[in-house]
Amino acid sequence: MAKKVDDMMNHEKFQEGSKADAEGWLTTYTIANPRRSAYAFCIDRKHPGYFHLCFKAGENAQLNSWAVKVIPQGYELQRNPYPDMMALCNGFKLLFANLQARAKARGGGGGYK
Which fold has domain 2-105? Predict the structure, then answer.
């Protein structure tokens, strides 16, 4: 599991510092790129073995985060296991796209709230 932690911390989407630091980076990024979504990982300092997956779907979207658990086989996000960082990132994108599609179908405009 230590290798999975190292893989997470060496990933290009990992942000050093606190959750507030990662959220600040996301806010700055989406102000500079208002039509782009962004996400970043950071350590969950209150829960050993967990990371935050922080994300913002555009400049005016709300900041959100989901817990990522390090498990012996890789990572767990929203009760779904992923063997490596590539699968985790792709899985997040699919989960978020499905969430957006469901919200849009309900007339919610597609934003995550």
Answer: SHC Adaptor Protein (3.30.505)
